[in-house]
Amino acid sequence: MTTVAEAINITQTQQKLLSIPLLSLPLRPSTLTALLRRGFATTGDIMINNTNTMKTGNDDGGIENLAEELGCSVSQSADYVHEINDALYSIGLPPVTANATNVGRTDGTTQNNNAILRSTNNIPATAASLLRSKLNSHMQHNSNSSSTARQIVSFSQPLDMLLGGGFALSELTEIAGLPGSGKTQLAMQLCVDARLPGKYGGVEGCAVVIDAEGSWSGAGVDRLWSLAGALVDHVKSSALRKMETIRAKEMANGGRGANTDTTTAPEELVPTWFTPESILDGIHIFRVHDESEQTCTLYNLPQFLQEQEEKGKPVKILVIDSLAFHYRVASSINSSNKGNFLSTTTSLTRMAAFLQELASEFDLAVLALNHLTNKLDKDSTGAGGMKLVPALGESWAHSVTSRLMVDFYHRHVPNGASSGGVMGEVRTCSLIKSPHKPNGTACFMITDKGIRGLPPQFIQQAEEAKRARLN
Questions:
Q1: Are 80 and 44 in contact (CB under 8 A)?
Q2: Which residues, other chains included, contact 2 with Cβ-Cβ below 8 Å and sequence gap of 6+?
Q3: What gap in Å lies between CA 293 and CA 287, rounded to an integer?
Q4: Four-residue CA torsion sign, 129, 131, 137, 139
Q5: Of 142, 239, 226, 140, which is closest to residue 188 (Cα–Cα)?
Q6: DSSP class of residue 21?
Q7: Comparing C-alpha atoms, which of 328, 401, 370 is closest to residue 186?
Q8: Percent of the chain beyond pLDDT 70?
Q9: What is the spatial distance between Cα 36 and Cα 300, in angstroms, rounded to a whole number?
Q10: 369 neighbors 175 (Cβ within 8 angstroms)
Q11: Which residue(s) pair with 453 in the sheet?
Q12: Beta carbons of 423 and 446 less than 8 angstroms apart
């Protein structure tokens, strides 16, 4: 018979041998955040918390202690432990508690029935409580920032109007398109715009990029620099125009303000930190070279995001360029392995759920860039051809909040347009899936200054060309 002292020694030995970093386990972002904030970094830390209760033989006491340290309810604490145990069980490791099957329960359920009981004990949440939780989360994040904006603007007015003001925070948005259609250019513009000060309608945050294709780590840095310079110039010009307008109104009201020095307006109205250098300092790029490195980097992001929040520099946009690249490479190598296909589908489903919760937990916009692939398109007679569709399959398509398709417009804008220089063709961006906006299409241009809307004189011509193509 094992004494209490021996049991404690056994548990302490196990925790030394099996102290697994929580960041290496497939846990939800909200779970990781709750544990890391309170100093629980490994499974050994959870074991230590529960070892103190072995003298009484009551694991529920360990759950109560954990709940007290985490500042949450006992049931929530039990859910955290069950999630950690499930993650450990999936990789063949023992649970973090001495009697994991009975944690938080009194029915003596075995491990085999654990998953079934968790589903039956799941307590539903009302729509009103979910809405309150969402609003409280937004208020909490806004209280730590000088900005109250809920969208990241693209500087293309038609595109921003199509999306209801810009790319929404707390959502997973997919941008799919052909190579060279402007996916990366649009993502770069959004990363730069995420640094826009709150007084100018920006979210005033940082950006994180998962660079799978190398587009950002090479020549992309030069492009980011030019976009950042154009943004700073635009904000300073806007500040100068605002000061001149104020001065004109003051002079019209009896000459007050006639001595106002408008040459200092940009320095007075634009934050001193807002420079191209500081904009690029707020864009963090992770270069990943294969599927495993990409997955590990994404699952380890909660700790980095939490550190950024503690520094007062919250991340407001996460870009994955592109999510499909390494998955498609791995699939082409193991194309004859049916098990690999199922594994990829499962991995993508979990990744989508993880990214959705990451967006909600840290109140940021997650932007997943995707490729197009060929799919057999059959009509009612069984005949048909091939059509281009976003890669990664139907399971991924159902998981994203919004889906955008970027395409060429097949019409060059004449040189000398007032949009600030032409880098290529006009692009179209079609909203084909959204929970809160109707489907539609907007046109934009990729100029030397970044993403911009079409000049007014070309909008009517573009609409006429579009109708001609449809007919």
A1: no
A2: 10
A3: 9
A4: negative
A5: 226
A6: B
A7: 370
A8: 70
A9: 12
A10: yes
A11: none
A12: yes
Residue of 360, 105, 69, 325 lying closest to 211 (CA atoms):
325
Q: How many whole angstroms separate alpha carbon 99 and alpha carbon 94? A: 10
Q: Per DSSP, what are the bridge partners of residue 151? A: 168
Q: Are 311 and 205 in contact, with CB atoms under 8 Å apart?
A: no
Contacts 24+ apart (CB under 8 A), 287-293: 287/211, 287/214, 287/216, 287/217, 288/210, 288/211, 288/212, 288/326, 290/326, 290/329, 290/330, 291/326, 291/327, 291/329, 291/330
This prediction has a pTM of: 0.70
Which residues have a Cβ under 8 Å from the Cβ of 140 and sit 6 or more positions away?
none
Scored b (16 or more CB within 10 A) or e, 221-247 reads: eebbeebbbbbbebbbeebbeebeeeb
pLDDT in tens, 288-331: 998 889 988 998 899 999 999 999 999 999 999 988 888 777 66
Calculate the alpha carbon distances from 424 to 109, 190, 446, 448 in Å.
65, 19, 7, 10
Residue pair 290/326 in contact (Cβ under 8 Å)? The answer is yes
Instruction: Report which of residues 10 and 96 the model is more confident about.
Output: 96
**How does 94-121 read in b/e, with b if 16+ C-beta sit within 10 Å?**
ebbbbebbbbbbeeeeeeeebeeebeee
Q: Helices H, strands E: what count in the chain?
A: 18, 13
Q: Is 224 left (phi over 0), alpha (psi -120 to 50) or beta?
A: alpha
| Amino acid making up residue 325 | F
pLDDT digit string (tens) for 407-418? 987 644 444 444
Question: How far apart (Å, rounded) are the C-alpha atoms in residues 377 and 454?
Answer: 34
Distances (CA, A) of 347 to 125, 183, 308, 324: 27, 24, 27, 12
Q: Has residue 12 got a pLDDT over 90? A: no
CA distance 208 to 285: 6
Q: Which DSSP string corresponds to 317-370?
A: EEEEETHHHHHHHHHHHTTT-HHHHHHHHHHHHHHHHHHHHHHHHHT-EEEEEE
